[in-house]
Structure prediction request, 70 residues.
Amino acid sequence: MLYSKIYDSIIERAKTRVVDCYVERHHIVPRCMGGTNNDSNLVTLTFREHFICHRLLCKMYPENEKLAYA
Prediction:
């Protein structure tokens, strides 16, 4: 399965939409992988999307144990 394709799809959709429910900020490139707090590396996700993205990141990079704690 192409976890990165699903992840990229969620991130791209989040960049251009407006959400009117509870949201969370998400680092596109995780900080434990060199990502920054710059606006260009942050998107707004729903709780469900945020959870899914973190699960996908764990599957995409199983060798990075820090992602399991993110």
Summary: The longest helix spans residues 47-60. Residues 26 and 43 are 5 Å apart (CA to CA). DSSP finds two helices and two strands in the chain. Strands lie at 23-27, 42-46.
